Amino acid sequence: VERQSLALVRVLRIARLLRVLRVVRVFRCVRPLRTMVCQLVSTLQPLLWALVLLVMILYTFAIVFTQLVLLHRANGGETPEALLENWSTLPRSMLSLFKSITNGEDWGTTASPLVAVGPGPVALFIGFIAFAQFAMLNILTGVFCQNAIETATHDQELVSQQMLANKAKYIDNMMQLFKEFDEDRDGTVSIAEFCAHLNDDRVRAYFESLELDTTDVRTLFRLMDPGDREELLVDDFVAGCMRLKGAAKSMDILKLSLAQTAIAKRLARFIERTDLTLEAVADHV
Fold it and tell me: What is the pLDDT of residues 82-105, one digit of tens each?
């Protein structure tokens, strides 16, 4: 019986492990969810330092307010119950400041007891609220946003997934555009069909939105037609659009440089052979 119980426990553990692995697999497939979770995890360290900074600022201002209230009480001034409740000790002052900047309590209600102390503490409290709302909290929000953006940018898997998704979407758009160009539905696009559609301002604007230059339509067609067949297959059209998209890349420039170097070497060898041949002909003459 004990052995059967142990075996059952092991089976249950394995099943639980498989279930966890399945959840992880689904989690990896759901890209937006994975992005948000990774960004939340990446903000833990900035959150820690933000809390440290917040405590330091609250502590500094709370010392001032508590000291002012204590001096007011020592001088025999009026001390309403709300003043003692919010500003009589350092922890209470810190809590009041924190609630005021996080909408835990209306800051006007928190500031009203300070009127009994004098206009100075009220003006200081208003300055603290302005500093916290317009400077401190906005800066902290910007730090969190920047950190989240950098996390999404430097995560290789997220970047790869985004690039693959963008590429698939671009290819799908190109295939839909090819079907629109192919009016006779023969599976090819002739240069006449290509030029006719690109004379449409709407299609031209769509091409430019896809980072394809439509200044010279015939040249664009020839660049997409590798076999000079005067017609484009869907694969040629999609591959040409992918290749011609955007500005020239460093790889394109390097390939052009290598081709020019090869042509220059061949031309130099041809000139050398021509000179030798002419010299031999001159000697015979």
Answer: 898 999 899 999 999 999 998 888
Cβ(214)–Cβ(220) below 8 Å: yes
Residue whose C-alpha is closest to residue 220's, from 259, 196, 194:
194
Burial class (CB in 10 A: 0-12, 13-18, 19+), 143: middle
**Model pTM?**
0.52
Element (H, E) at 189: strand 188-190
Distance of alpha carbon 204 from alpha carbon 213, whole angstroms: 9
Q: Do 170 and 242 meet the contact criterion of CB atoms below 8 Å apart?
A: yes
How far apart are the C-alpha atoms of 190 and 181, rounded to whole Å?
9
Q: What dihedral angle (degrees, nearest 10) is formed by the CA atoms of 187, 193, 195, 200?
A: -110
CA distances from residue 156 to 35, 36, 166, 243 in whole angstroms, order as listed? 12, 15, 15, 24
CA nearest neighbour of 117 among 94, 86, 92, 95: 86
Query: CB of 73 within 8 A of CB of 52?
Result: no
**232: which strand partners?**
189
DSSP-derived pairing of the beta strands 231-233 and 188-190: antiparallel
d(CA 96, CA 56): 15
Between CA 196 and CA 217 the distance in angstroms is 10
Q: What is the pLDDT of residues 38-80, one digit of tens each?
A: 778 878 888 899 999 999 999 999 999 999 999 998 888 888 8
Residue 246 CB partners (closer than 8 Å, separation 6+)? 211
Read off the amino acid at residue 217.
Answer: V
